[in-house]
Amino acid sequence: MKIPAVGTKAKPRELSTPPGTSTYTMHTDTIDGREVLVCTVGKTVLHYDVRCLQDLHAMLSAHGEWMELGSADEQKPAKPGTVEAWGRSPKNPIGGWYGLKKGLRGRFGMYIPPLMEALGLAELTHEAKGNKMRALKG
């Protein structure tokens, strides 16, 4: 599956969190020879392995149903069975965290799903709490 263009440093993709309470930007860049997603939330910059887009879509497609996002900071445990828990699980395709900056590896379930929705890879709910996602056929 080919992932659509995410955005560039000069022209990042503007996104909103699932509840619509915050905005942030996302683009791809190469850091230390590795392609990464750069997520900028205010002055905070997070990095995620770009492979997460394809891997998350494949997992959600196999799951076949809605899955709770379950966003959590790195220092807090992720609720089992959520997108957040999968994004840091030793059982995912990369064997651990898709977040790459120590101390800022969490919030996978907050920032990656809206990008997947914008790219036409997933559908999200947009409630105040307890949001879910499912794969769209890609």
Written account of the structure:
The chain has one domain (13-135). 20% of the residues lie in helices and 26% in strands. It has helices at 52-63, 83-86, 108-118, and strands spanning 13-16, 23-31, 34-41, 44-49, 67-68, 122-124, 132-135. The strands form two sheets. The protein has a four-stranded antiparallel sheet with strand order 1-2-3-4, with helices on one face. A three-stranded antiparallel sheet has the order 5-7-6. The longest helix has 12 residues, at 52-63. It is globular and about 35 Å long. The N and C termini lie close together (7 Å). The model has no long low-confidence stretch (mean pLDDT 95).
How many domains? The number is 1
**Any low-confidence stretches, pLDDT <50, length ≥5?**
none
Percentage of residues in strands: 25-35%
**DSSP strand count:** 7
**Apparent shape:** globular
- The structural class is alpha+beta
Radius of gyration: 14 Å
For the termini, the CA-CA separation is 7 Å
What integer is the average pLDDT?
95
Number of helices: 3
* Strand order across the largest sheet: 1-2-3-4
Assembly type: single chain
* Biggest sheet descriptor: 4 strands, antiparallel
- The residue fraction in helices comes out at 10-25%
Order of helices and strands: EEEEHEHHEE
Topology:
Elements: E1 13-16, E2 23-31, E3 34-41, E4 44-49, H1 52-63, E5 67-68, H2 83-86, H3 108-118, E6 122-124, E7 132-135
Nutshell version of this structure?
By secondary structure, the chain is α+β, with helices and mostly antiparallel strands. The chain has helices at 52-63, 83-86, 108-118, and strands spanning 13-16, 23-31, 34-41, 44-49, 67-68, 122-124, 132-135. The longest helix has 12 residues, at 52-63.
